[in-house]
Write a structure and sequence with these properties.
- The protein is α+β, with helices and mostly antiparallel strands.
- It folds into two domains: 2-176, OB fold (Dihydrolipoamide Acetyltransferase, E2P); 203-419, Chloramphenicol Acetyltransferase.
- 27% of the residues lie in helices and 24% in strands.
- The chain is built from ten helices and 21 strands.
- The chain has helices spanning 96-102, 129-137, 156-164, 199-214, 227-244, 251-264, 308-324, 329-332, 397-412, 415-419; strands at residues 2-6, 17-22, 29-30, 35-40, 45-49, 54-59, 66-67, 72-78, 183-185, 192-194, 217-225, 271-273, 276-278, 285-287, 289-291, 294-296, 299-300, 337-341, 360-364, 368-374, 377-391.
- A hairpin with a 2-residue loop joins strand 12 (271-273) and strand 13 (276-278).
- The N and C termini lie far apart (67 Å).
- 35% of the residues are buried.
């Protein structure tokens, strides 16, 4: 029986997606729930699994084409054996532009052949989309790459390390429609390369410009002495990790400190909707995570009800899923306040940009030992600059400064986080 493989129902906030890469070609055998193709939205990468065991008959859409909910992607012959069903010939004579245009119709008359020369990973091995693309681009045998991830999974770093130790010429970039291909301009040391933005990068650019042009954005700064937090972490880190299965990092302290400050200054947790101010009586804290595709902000929902251990576990899980490409749109939706940590990259001071429609964002930075005056004495302390950007349309400078001071006070005396004072 022939089964149609279609684009899954996209969330209401997502109009369409880009077909990033096919992992099968006509004539290939597939197993039920095996990933056939990656679709990139402006937020996440979605995987489309095989609905049944069988053989791919036709691929109806090119790499790089824009697709919508319910659009036909491929035909699969259920129960067929590889080699028994001849692959439908590709419409090779079509131009890339014509094929992309024809892909919008549900009943496209000709199939599109997609090259898939990369050796597939071993049976049962699941690769994250970013890892799979790297393996296929360089025509690697995933089975020959040792995995350092959880349960022996291959990470992007494992693939890059494998490539570094492998002396070979670069593999060709997979074919894409003419409009989406990178363009290289030869010229020796002054060569140029033009590459289209990914949907996520384009969306990030759009939101940053929106924040700059919509909000009356200002930034206030302070610094915090993290000696007490460091001592607390050093004293309890081993027992904490044993109890919660996660390292006691700084993020849980900052999340808790921000929540206490948000309780005292609720306008910082609010947002603008037309001529209204919407006060959120819950605390959904976004934590910015950097990935190879760009910055994403998964949300800790009801973070005020979470323990330190639950916060650390959630942050690690979100970061891993974001970098593997398995994070969902629901994980990134909403949020009332955001924390971003440029210090992990060595940033000493920066002015973070609002994550619209939120009205404030806290920027963490590098911890650096500096001489400071304490009780009239010059001492060396682990100091961090804090920056809070805020929407001056609804947050006054007084409230912004007092909020940041409240965060500083809570971190310099962590016992206040337990007592909520």
């Amino acid at each position: 029986m022939t089964i149609e493989v279609r684009v899954p129902q996209l969330p209401e906030s997502v109009a369409d997606a880009t077909l990033v890469a096919w992992h099968k070609k006509p004539g290939d055998a597939v197993s039920r729930d095996e990933n056939l193709v990656d679709l990139e939205t402006d937020k996440v990468v979605l995987e489309v699994p095989a609905p049944a065991n069988g053989v791919i008959l036709e691929l109806r859409v090119h790499n790089g084409a824009t697709v919508t909910s319910g659009q036909l992607l491929a035909l699969l012959e259920e129960g067929a054996i590889a080699g028994a069903t001849p692959a439908t010939p590709a419409a090779a004579s079509r131009s890339g532009a014509a094929a992309a245009a024809g892909a919008g119709a549900a009943a496209a008359p000709a199939a599109v052949s997609v090259a898939a020369d990369a050796r597939a990973p071993g049976a049962g091995e699941k690769l994250a989309p970013s890892v799979r693309r790297l393996v296929e681009e360089h025509r690697l045998d995933a089975g020959a790459i040792p995995g350092s991830g959880r349960d022996g999974r291959i990470t992007k770093g494992d693939v890059l390390s494998h490539l570094t130790g492998k002396e070979s010429s670069p593999a060709p970039v997979p074919a894409a429609p003419a409009a989406a291909q990178a363009v290289s301009v030869p010229g020796g040391p002054r060569a140029e390369r033009r590459v289209p933005m990914t949907r996520l990068r384009a969306r990030i650019a759009e939101r940053l410009v929106q924040a700059q042009s919509t909000a009356a954005m200002l930034t206030t700064f302070n610094e915090v002495d993290l000696k007490a937090v460091n001592e607390l972490r050093a004293r309890h880190k081993d027992r904490f990790e044993k109890a919660h299965g996660a390292r006691l990092g700084f993020m849980s302290f900052f999340v808790k400190a921000c929540i206490e400050a948000l309780r005292r200054y609720p306008v910082v947790n609010a947002s603008v909707d037309g001529n209204d101010i919407v006060y959120h009586e819950y605390y959904d804290i976004g934590v910015a995570v950097s990935t190879d595709r760009g910055l994403v902000v998964p949300v800790l929902r009801d973070a005020d009800a979470m323990s330190f251990g639950e916060i650390e576990q959630s942050v690690v899980a979100y970061a891993n899923r974001a970098r593997e490409g398995s994070i969902t749109i629901e994980d990134l939706t909403g949020g009332t306040f955001t924390i971003t940590n440029g210090g992990v990259f060595g940033s000493l001071l920066s002015t973070p940009i609002l994550n619209m429609p939120q009205s404030a964002i806290l920027g963490m930075h590098k911890i650096q030992e500096r001489p400071v005056v304490v009780d009239g004495q010059v001492v060396v302390r682990p100091m961090m600059y804090l920056a809070m950007s805020y929407d001056h349309r609804i947050i006054d400078g007084r409230e912004a400064v007092q909020f940041l001071v409240a965060v500083k006070d809570a971190l310099e005396d962590p016992a206040r986080l337990l007592l909520q004072v």
